[in-house]
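Quick log. Single chain, no ligands specified.
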Amino acid sequence: MAHSLSLPVGGMTCASCVARVEKALAKVPGVRAASVNLATESATVEGDGALDAGVLAAAVERAGYAVAREPVDLAIEGMTCASCVARVERALAKVPGVLAAEVNLATEGARVTRLAGSAPTADLLAAVQRAGYTAHERRDDATPAAAPAAAWLSDGRRVLLAALLSAPLALPMVGDLFGAHWMLPGWLQLLLATPVQFWLAARFYRAGWAALRAGSGNMDLLVALGTSAAYGLSVFTLATSADAMPALYFESAAVVVTLVLFGKWLEARAKRQTTDSIRALQALRPDTARIRRGGVETDVPLAEVVVGDEVVVRPGERLPVDGVLLEGRSHVDESLLTGESLPVAKAPGDRVTGGAVNGEGLLLVRTTAVGAETALARIVRLVESAQAKKAPIQRLVDQVSAVFVPVVIVAALITFAGWWLAAGAPIATALLHAVAVLVIACPCALGLATPAAIMVGTGVAARHGILIQDVVALEALRDVAVIAFDKTGTLTVGRPVLVEAIAARGDRAALLADAAALQRGSEHPLARAVLQAAPEGGAAASDVAAVAGRGVKGRVGARSLLLGSGPWMHELGVDITALAENAQTLQQAGHSVSWLAEEQAAGGPPRLVGLLAFGDTLKPGAAQAIAQLVAQGVRPVLVSGDNRGSAQAVAGQLGIAEVHAEVLPGAKAGVVAALRNGLAAEAKVAMVGDGINDAPALAAADVGIAMATGTDIAMQTAGVTLMRGELALVAQAVSISRATTRKIRQNLFWAFVYNAVGIPLAAFGFLSPVLAGAAMALSSVSVVTNALLLRRWRPAAAQSSPGRSQED
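-> predicted structure:
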């Protein structure tokens, strides 16, 4: 059967490009013909069999052109275990135009990457439905938390009803322990067990039948087969036995169904708790905003606010938009956005973020971002994206889950045959042991082990101001052995300050006053540093003029002053000998030096007035943060484009032994790559930076960590973004990664061990179906509960033992 697929191709400019793309596509196995249209920038590929969109896209990209992709998020209903995940992924991957599909059991969602303009959402939803599940598109403005809440309450009522119907069947077993005979008549047992089996357990039949139609199996199929066998044997015995009280197993079927339903209810409750961080962030967005137009204040829905609107925020209210503060002063609580525990002071001109809580002042804010473009919306998208992705370790689970259910069914058949034919046990005994094998097997725990831990871990990180955008980065952080730091803006504040002012004739106050007079009104960073250090209210210079590449000149009273660089002073013939030694010492310490001179009324070279030295201060807590990394077994390295004296001075204060100074932006990536030399095969290298010039190095590292106080391009390149400029967050990110990956490994270990031990115990007759059902119900709950323990994680600073975090 012939198949065709259309691909969007970008970057073509001429007929040669068309020929090159057609040639690249024609080489792909299975392609019969390829036609490229330059005008529509698309390629149509025909083949005799199904075409792999990913392979075709890779061929085009190898030829030097771009293939546009677009993601779509789907909400999937009806999944119960890892086998369901694998089946939905296979169904989505078969839709023409789909490049990748990742399904997450914990979030009950799918992230599909498709070729732009292909694989319509309707086709994706239909594919999921054919696989036996229901789906709908999940949009940015949706609030998916409400639906699971309703389902959770409905499941709770089902569990309660199943327990009420099963209790009379199970109580006689308790009575037997005390010699009491409370066994109900067979017909009454049938009456109680039937609604449990075919009404309350109907979900297992529906999902199991859907799995069979799709050619696979899942947890529901195992439960349906096991309980149906016990129920069917009981009905047959009741109908054919002449005994007044035959051996019936209605209680096994009913109690197993009840326990499994109870386990699913607990699991849903626990899974809702794993998404607490996302719901907390979504709840920060107010529904309305108070805008001022033409002097009139009006409350409007948030969706009607546009960029440029002036928004009034009263004390105690949440800011509805991102913006710039026009009027008012206040302290703003940004704790849920940045993890900063203390309110931040805001004054006119400062930026404010939607979702933060206004403190004591009345604020007027000019809107700069609304809706999906706000910082809050971007944070939610980043966290959701990280939670939707699969960790590399999940591949092992996918391979196991693909064969898990068929293997369990075969094991149950072997158990039945072994007990009945080989051991000579009654058929009822053999069937009960086979039922126990079917019931105890739990692919749910395998499916939840990784995503549950990732959801909690990324949520905890977001709550502390650490945005993990890439699950691969989360796992790689665990093995980080070397972290390279940029200097300016990362280890230092990034704002120069005046560190020294030396007057040629000893009058430091006059020197500062003259320099401030020249700089008053300037926005240059060095000018701001001078003005901050000088007394307020000084005179302003007149006839101020900037001298490109050299400095500034102007008149202060009757004097003509010049402030600028050493080379300029040399050009002017200024004698700086008196302070040359001081200048050399300051420069060796990593400071930049500016000179102030005064033109002489009688002519001749200007006369030296003094020098100003500027430096960038270390961030508060930088030394403690580096010490924490060292305590975690991480080697810190400084990689900077600044002069060696400045870099060595900073490294010396922080206790960093390895320094790479005067590194050009393009060479930083090479330095980061070279840091891998001599490391163990599994060891990773991370890079921390904040500027555009750090982006290549962030991309070259195994883990890129960007400061949100820096540039957008740095944050887009990195896998981890720190919402505050505090270096302590780097050590905290490593700690959270190690805690999360530890939980993943614990969960997978117990999930595998549970099945490896539980199935043989059931097969050899050591577990009844009721005990097997209870164990199966608790297995997935225990996995999610173990993941939820991550919520106890606290930064090292909050612990009594320095240098350690609560990681378990």
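The chain has 28 helices and 30 strands.
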